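Researcher: Sequence recovery benchmark, item below. Answer with residues only.
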């Protein structure tokens, strides 16, 4: 299989109702993952981009969160309507979508 240039991890962690950390699953992570896969299929970029579901990435209360490697870019509060821009700007153009970046404090 070809090595993808970008690997997109979409958090699909779920937690029980009322859990204090919340979860990306509760905030639309599953719908977001499905939308990423649809966009990947529509663009037929399987040799360039991989999209994989993941467990918890960290900042649960700002989900759904999306992590892109190899650069380690973390996006928060991503919605399906953001996906085309992520593909065009970041996954194909190597320019991360600034407005969706997780706050720098997440990494402290
Ligand atoms: S549940 Fe998605 S980052 Fe924790």
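Model:
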């Amino acid at each position: 299989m070809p090595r993808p240039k970008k690997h997109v991890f979409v958090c699909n962690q779920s937690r029980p109702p009322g859990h204090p950390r919340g979860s990306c699953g509760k905030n639309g992570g599953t719908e977001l993952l499905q939308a990423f896969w649809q966009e990947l299929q529509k663009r037929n970029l399987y040799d360039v981009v991989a999209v994989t579901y993941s467990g918890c990435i960290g900042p649960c209360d700002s989900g759904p969160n999306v992590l892109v490697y190899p650069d380690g870019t973390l996006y928060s509060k991503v919605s399906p309507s953001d996906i085309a821009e992520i593909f065009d700007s970041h996954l194909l153009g190597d320019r991360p979508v600034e407005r969706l970046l997780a706050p720098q404090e997440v990494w402290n």
